[in-house]
Design a protein that fits this description.
Layout lengths: L1 E5 L2 H10 L5 E2 L2 E4 L2 E5 L5 E3 L2 H4 L20 E3 L1 E2 L2 E5 L1 H15 L5 E5 L4 H11 L7 E4 L7 H9 L2 E2 L4 H29 E2 L11 H16 L5 E10 L5 E7 L9 H11 L3 E14 L7 H11 L5 H13 L18 H12 L40 H16 L5 E12 L5 E11 L23 E13 L8 H10 L10 H6 L12 H10 L3 E4 L2 E4 L1 H9 L8 H15 L5 H20 L7 E2 L9 E4 L6 E4 L3 E4 L9 E3 L3 H4 L7 H10 L2 E7 L5 E10 L6 E6 L3
Parallel strand pairs: 1-4, 1-9, 9-10, 12-21
Antiparallel strand pairs: 2-3, 3-4, 5-6, 7-8, 10-11, 13-14, 13-18, 14-17, 15-16, 15-18, 16-17, 19-20, 22-23, 23-24, 24-25, 26-27, 27-28
Helix pairs in contact: 1-5, 4-6, 6-17, 6-18, 9-10, 9-13, 10-12, 10-15
């Protein structure tokens, strides 16, 4: 019997379907010589500092730096009450360990996601039980039935994935040590008043610095005036075209009088076309998506989308078998995938109006092992979705279209450049025209190219000057970062990067040298907003006052340095490849943490964040029907403020009577009950599942101090 551990229940279901296993038990599937169980992502987490030593429960400067000699794990905490373990995780962990110990199980297979996080999730669960059985790894890029069956034949012994596990654990421990130590001492040193901690993180701060730097650039920008001279010419057959004056390769002039002199000089002069160049140019389809490019494309095109949302929707499509693994940094496919890709293309092209133009070809732009880092680019699978949510439709269509574009004809256009010279003038007038000849891949998303057609002329043709003008312009400041531009800088650590760089240039930049990974960048941007360092204005990201003060005051400057963070990420990538040891990396991180804590402790005393306690005044919902005191909302219910003196009036939010009709008590309902002694409630559900509305009263019982519900269908 083989036991397979999946990362999530939905993936376990995909594996069970592929193996045709229908029998579902409590926490696992069983049949056909397989047991398939699942985690809910991480079931265990690193100890909190106070779990190692009770004195760490209180933040005191003397307690830091704090670096455990052995890192320990516990069942993950309940998100609603961090003092206790998550009951669901605890139960599932017991089920997994019971199944691992079953006598008929002779092989354990980790089928968690094929990345460093997935490796850590599987290993942290499996090795916690100290198994004596063979452990294998199922490494898949998609969850379609064909791939699951093929993957089971190609499994690897889990110990061969040790470098991936080392990289995952190194990342986890490093972020814990830097986060716990620097967040604690920074909050103690630089924050006045109680509230949210000053969040300090390895990936958080350099990302904040990118936004801060752009904001400062915009602030310090001094606009400059410049001038252009434009002329309109007419051919012998009365066709018109425009040209821009160029002198010494310059078309923008700082001095207006230079151009005004030329404007006077060209009047009533003849002009001659001295050069004509016609060139056919090819426009290749943009490369396949990696996660950052997909996030940039969607957040830029659709209002209200964030990188975090794109990742969540892509993850859902992946778990439903419609796309390949989304957390990838590659923009090409492995060369071995050519046969499979041809079949996927054939399936997806069936219903398209331009299907006759789609042709499978194995090109280096699409299939290139040198451009694949761990995982191939995101692509659709052969499973065609029947029903998608509107959000899933947006992301799936973008991925499918980008995939199909690769196998459509290359778009072609003709570019014409004319040079027009006026007598006795040193410079010349330049004109450009463009005509789309072959639409090709642009048909997929109906991309309209703007044609600018120049009249048919020949070299040495004379043309007449119809009109001319000197126009004033002002240089524009750089634009604020958006999620799209920020992701690109994070992906490359700002190296060899220009905002209009093509995906091809991006793909050739040193892999591994980045801020965060494809999987974590969205989370970082979201966290910057959540902790109040960055705010969003439309698509733009701006540094808040708190974010600015942090960048300008926090003394550990390495944490803002893109190079420093890039080197750490590159080292993690090297651990994953087996080129650097985990010990080497951690020793660097631990000494950096010790030095940083000392820098903060003994550095200048300043306040970065001052929290003023504002006492929230609770809303009074009405008068208590029992004693006349105020009724207010609490965390679990709506109760009388006189409860300390024994008043029993309360309506619980999860009231059992209301819950039996799939309803919860709301503020509006309680206000109405207190005011009118009756409330009309819609959307109640009967035992048979049909919806209805009714008048509800909440009346004191005659024989005790408690209240009960009464229902009427007439007022």
């Amino acid at each position: 019997m083989r036991l397979i551990l999946a990362e999530k229940p939905s993936v376990a279901k995909n594996i069970a379907d592929a193996l045709k296993i229908k029998d579902k038990k409590d926490g696992y599937f069983e049949g056909n010589n397989y047991i398939i169980t699942w985690a809910f992502g991480h079931l265990v987490q690193l100890y909190d500092a106070k779990d190692y030593d009770s004195k760490m429960a209180r933040w005191k400067m003397d307690n830091f730096p704090f670096i455990p000699t052995n890192f320990k794990y516990k069942v993950k905490s309940d998100p609603r009450n961090r003092q206790r373990s998550d009951r669901g995780a605890e139960k599932q962990l017991k089920i997994i360990h019971y199944l691992m110990k079953r006598n008929d199980v002779d092989m354990i297979i980790s089928a968690c996601d094929y990345d460093r996080e997935g490796q850590v999730i599987g290993d942290s669960i499996i090795y916690r039980a100290k198994p004596k059985k063979q452990i294998y790894r199922l490494l898949l890029n998609e969850w379609t039935p064909d791939e699951v069956l093929h993957g089971i034949e190609q499994m690897k012994p889990n110990e061969t994935l040790r470098p991936l596990q080392d990289a995952g654990v190194s990342r986890q421990w490093a972020d814990w040590v830097i986060g716990i130590n620097l967040t604690s001492v920074a909050t103690l040193k630089y924050q006045k008043g109680k509230g949210k901690a000053l969040n300090i993180g390895r990936v958080l701060l350099p990302t904040l610095k990118i936004i801060y730097d752009r904001d400062k650039e915009i602030e310090n920008f001094v606009p400059e005036d410049y001038f252009k001279l434009t002329a309109t010419f007419q051919t012998k057959d009365l066709k018109e075209y425009q040209g821009t004056y160029i002198e010494k390769n310059q078309e923008k002039f700082k001095k207006k009088d230079i151009l005004e002199d030329i404007l006077v000089a060209i009047q009533n002069k003849t002009a001659i076309i001295t050069d004509k160049q016609v060139e056919k140019k090819k426009e290749f389809a943009p490369f396949l998506f990696n996660l950052s490019n997909l996030q940039g494309y969607i957040t830029n095109k659709y209002k209200g989308w964030t990188s975090d949302k794109v990742l969540k929707v892509a993850q859902s499509l992946y778990e439903k078998k419609f796309i390949t693994y989304p957390r990838t940094s590659s923009i090409a496919l492995e060369e071995s995938l050519a046969g499979k890709t041809a079949k996927v293309l054939k399936t997806l092209a069936e219903d398209l109006p331009y299907k006759d133009e789609i042709k499978f070809m194995k090109t280096k732009r699409v299939f290139n092992n040198a451009k694949v880092e761990s995982h191939s680019a995101i692509a659709p699978t052969y499973v065609k979705p029947k029903r998608l949510t509107s959000d899933e439709q947006i992301v799936y269509t973008a991925i499918k279209n980008r995939f199909i574009m690769q196998f459509m004809p290359v778009a072609e256009y003709e570019e014409t450049k004319l040079t027009t010279k006026v007598d006795d003038v040193q410079g010349y007038f330049s004109s450009k025209g463009k005509v789309q000849l072959v639409e090709g891949w642009k048909k997929v998303e109906n991309i309209q190219s703007k044609d600018n057609i120049l009249p048919v002329v020949q070299v040495n043709d004379s043309v007449s000057l119809l009109d001319s003008e000197v126009s004033s312009h002002v240089t524009k400041p750089p634009k604020h970062h958006t999620e799209k531009t920020l992701l690109r800088v994070m992906e490359t650590c700002g190296k060899s990067y220009k905002e209009d760089d093509s995906d091809e240039v991006m793909g050739s930049i040193l892999t591994g040298f980045s801020i965060g990974t494809a999987a974590t960048r969205a989370e970082t941007i979201k966290k910057l907003k959540d902790v109040g360092y960055v705010s969003g204005q439309g698509k733009n990201l701006l540094c808040t006052d708190l974010g600015r003060r942090l960048v300008e005051t926090f003394p550990v400057k390495d944490l803002f340095d893109l190079e420093f963070t890039g080197r750490l990420e590159k080292t993690l990538s090297d651990i994953q490849k087996g080129n650097v040891s985990k010990r080497e990396f951690l020793s660097l991180v631990f000494s950096f943490t010790n030095d940083s804590v000392a820098t903060i402790k003994y550095g200048q005393d300043v306040i970065i964040n001052e929290i003023t306690s504002t006492q929230r005044t609770k809303e009074i919902l009405g008068a208590c029907p029992q004693c006349g005191s105020k009724v207010m909302e609490g965390t679990k219910g709506f109760g009388c403020s006189n409860w300390k003196s024994g008043c029993k009036f309360v309506i619980w939010k999860n009231d059992k009577y209301l819950a039996s009709m799939k309803k919860r008590a709301t503020k509006t309902m309680v206000k109405e009950l207190l005011k009118n002694k009756v409330a009309y409630v819609k959307g109640l559900t009967s035992k048979k599942g049909s919806k209805f509305g009714a008048y509800l009263r909440y009346e004191k019982n005659p024989d005790n101090d408690y209240f009960s519900w009464k229902m009427d269908f007439k007022k």
